[in-house]
Task: inverse folding
């Protein structure tokens, strides 16, 4: 039976079976199946998406873990891929931050320097409100939208006020929920405190102001300030005082128009709050500060006035030539009464001082000094006074005038004695001195930057006299001056005969000797005009008489002629030849030559 | 109009929130969502009375519910007719807060729609009578006696 069925199946379904086997083979052969599917996958996907758009979403499912794995495995690849995106984003963010910063700085500068800012600073000073809060108040708006007065115990609403459009929720549920939240916070987080005091609800802010019996919950739009917080606290205190009965009696809850009206006052905007704040009493602090400032100013002024007065009294008492008897203050000016020497120097302008003084003659040293100085009126003379003794120093050109001046000083009041320490100086210049005073012809005067240099010769007395005269013109250098005396010159000339053997010429020794003689005589002649020099020529008379005399004549002539060449005037020369009367046997050189003698 | 604070008390999952939803919103959901802390609902009972209903959770955590009971005008005790153990939770609450016994109260024996699962004995009823003279076999799912129970409480309060 079974075989027949198999045969029948083979006859009827052999082709289908072969196809099924081929399909099975295809399914078993993954590579072949993949190849086959790849041929239709793309058009099949397009067709499926066209027929069913949701199909595409299946491919969009994000497996975050796969991303994390991929990023961890290929960090650098992701960095390279994201860098072109992140870079501009960072730059944009930084640029925006810098712009905000610049804007903030600009705003701060504007706020710091504008008239409005100054006005706010004054308000801050006057009211005691921090400047930052005033700026905040004037730039940020807020509005209290709803106010709930909620019984602390039950969480039930006692009273409510709100802008109609703001009432979006069940106010009883809101009250209860706020109480529940506050209880939760108090029990869970802050058991000892008041619990929740503020919260943010979307863009709104919830403030809960605690009270002994009931709390005020306010829903505020914008940015409320601390001033509003204080206002809420004050309102809570007022309500507990004025509406005590309403808070205690449950049947009055939600049924007290007065309480509702009181709450409506809390539906403040920023400007209303500010106005109320300004209306609310007078802030005495600014006035107290001003009063304190005035008191300080008065105390400081009094102290300064006292100090000035004391300083002025000290100054006047120390001022030579002034005797203070009284100092008073009138019409914003000090008035000093006392005795005043005309020479007393008091700075009335800088000291805001007026003098009502009686003139007198002060005998204080400094005043005497000033008076005598004025009297002399000579810039080259300095006067100092100590214990009435006057010392005069300086230089003077005229002794007589100086003596007269000193004489006057001696007779001034208060002067006990005058000490003359004045140095006399010639008023002449060197040139004018030289014009009127001839320098001895034996001397020569030269001047350089430092000193007067005298050269030549003269007697000691003449040199000393000249040196003294010249000292007024500067330092005198006499080191090059040859000091001589007439007697010494005469003795020198008389004791210096010239031995000459050869009567025909003078040798070098002779001329040197004669130079000295002529120089000495010329010096003597300049010192003593009425002198002559006598030349006496002689020989030893050995040999013939004629020859000896002739030789003596020749020797005389040689010396005479030479002396003339040396500048000795012929009229001052006397000559004498001692002729031989007898001949001598032996040669005596000591007798051969020319002798000199000064004749006065 | 005077608001009255009404606190719903009972073991978790006895149907407190469902009862409130049924009464306030006339709505019931089969899906169970546990209440966290407290849920507040309000219902105007008549021209003069408004119920502020505190659906309190957390009775399994000792004393955490106590602050929510402060100032309550009335109590609604809820027990599960299919879970008599929920009655024991009420005993513990009363033991912790005996002052609750002085307040007007009603008791809802809930989930009566689960007829086959109800396990109830007379002694349970006696216990409930100690808590409140008014008790109602309620079903948040069908709404049976829910409104009657709330209205009875409102009547007692006035």
Result:
């Amino acid at each position: 039976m079974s075989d027949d069925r198999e045969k029948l199946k083979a006859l009827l379904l052999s082709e289908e079976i072969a196809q099924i086997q081929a399909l099975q083979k295809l399914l078993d052969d993954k590579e072949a199946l993949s190849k086959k599917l790849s041929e239709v996958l793309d058009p099949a996907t397009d067709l499926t998406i066209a027929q069913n758009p949701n199909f595409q979403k299946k491919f969009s499912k994000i497996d975050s873990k796969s991303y994390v794995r991929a990023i961890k495995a290929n960090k650098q690849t992701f960095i390279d891929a994201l860098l072109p995106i992140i870079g501009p984003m960072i730059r944009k963010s930084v640029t925006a931050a810098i712009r905000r910063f610049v804007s903030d700085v600009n705003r701060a500068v504007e706020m710091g320097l504008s008239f409005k800012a100054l006005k706010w600073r004054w308000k801050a000073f006057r009211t005691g409100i921090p400047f930052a809060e005033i700026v905040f108040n004037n730039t940020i708006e807020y509005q209290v939208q709803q106010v709930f007065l909620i019984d602390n115990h039950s969480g039930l609403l006692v009273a409510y006020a709100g802008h109609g459009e703001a009432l979006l929720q069940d106010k009883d549920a809101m009250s209860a929920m706020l109480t529940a939240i506050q209880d939760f916070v108090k029990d869970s987080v802050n058991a000892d405190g008041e619990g929740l005091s503020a919260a943010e609800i979307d863009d709104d802010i919830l403030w809960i102001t605690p009270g002994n019996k009931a709390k005020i919950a306010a829903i505020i739009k914008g940015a409320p300030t601390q001033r509003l917080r204080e206002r809420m606290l004050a309102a809570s205190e007022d309500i507990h005082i004025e509406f005590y009965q309403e808070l205690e009696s449950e049947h009055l809850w939600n049924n007290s128009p007065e309480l509702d009206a009181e709450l409506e006052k809390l539906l403040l905007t920023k400007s209303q709050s500010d106005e109320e704040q300004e209306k609310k009493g007078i802030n005495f602090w600014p006035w107290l500060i001003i009063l304190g400032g005035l008191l300080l100013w008065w105390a400081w002024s009094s102290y300064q006035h006292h100090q000035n007065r004391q300083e002025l009294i000290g100054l006047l008492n120390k001022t030579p030539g002034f005797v203070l008897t009284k100092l008073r203050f009138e019409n914003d000016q000090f008035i000093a009464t006392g005795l005043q020497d005309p020479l007393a120097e008091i700075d009335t302008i800088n000291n805001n001082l007026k003098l009502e003084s009686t003139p007198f003659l002060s005998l204080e040293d400094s005043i005497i000094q000033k008076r005598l100085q004025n009297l002399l009126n000579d810039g080259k003379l300095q006067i100092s006074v100590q214990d009435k003794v006057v010392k005069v120093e300086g230089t003077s050109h005229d002794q007589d005038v100086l003596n007269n001046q000193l004489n006057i000083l001696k007779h001034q009041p208060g002067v006990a004695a005058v000490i003359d320490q004045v140095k006399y100086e010639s008023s002449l210049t060197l040139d004018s001195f030289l014009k009127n005073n001839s320098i001895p012809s034996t001397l020569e005067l030269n001047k350089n930057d430092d000193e007067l240099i005298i050269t030549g010769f003269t007697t000691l007395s003449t040199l000393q006299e000249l040196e003294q005269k010249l000292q007024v013109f500067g330092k005198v250098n006499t080191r090059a001056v040859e000091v001589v005396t007439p007697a010494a010159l005469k003795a020198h000339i008389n004791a210096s005969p010239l031995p000459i053997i050869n009567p025909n010429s003078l040798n070098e020794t002779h001329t040197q000797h004669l130079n000295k003689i002529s120089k000495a005589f010329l010096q003597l002649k300049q010192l003593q005009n009425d002198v002559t020099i006598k030349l006496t020529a002689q020989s030893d008379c050995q040999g013939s008489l004629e020859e000896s005399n002739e030789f003596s004549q020749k020797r005389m002539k040689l010396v005479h002629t030479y002396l003339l060449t040396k500048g000795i005037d012929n009229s001052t020369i006397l000559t004498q030849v001692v002729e031989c009367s007898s001949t001598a046997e032996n040669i005596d050189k000591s007798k051969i030559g020319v002798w000199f003698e000064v004749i006065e | 109009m005077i608001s009255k604070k009404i606190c719903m008390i009972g073991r978790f999952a006895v149907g407190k929130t469902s009862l409130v939803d049924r009464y306030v919103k006339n709505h019931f959901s089969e899906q169970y969502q546990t209440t966290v802390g407290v849920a507040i609902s309000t219902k105007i009972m008549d021209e003069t009375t408004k119920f502020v209903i505190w659906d309190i959770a957390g009775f399994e955590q000792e004393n955490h519910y106590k602050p929510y009971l402060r100032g309550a005008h009335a109590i609604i005790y809820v027990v599960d007719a299919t879970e008599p153990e929920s009655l024991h939770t009420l005993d513990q609450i009363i033991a912790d807060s005996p002052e609750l016994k002085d307040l007007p109260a009603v008791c809802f024996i809930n989930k009566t729609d689960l007829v086959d699962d109800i396990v109830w004995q007379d002694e349970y009823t006696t216990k409930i009578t100690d808590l409140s003279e008014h008790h109602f076999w309620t079903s948040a799912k069908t709404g049976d006696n829910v409104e009657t129970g709330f209205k009875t409480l409102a009547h007692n309060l006035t």
In short: The radius of gyration of chain A is 69 Å.
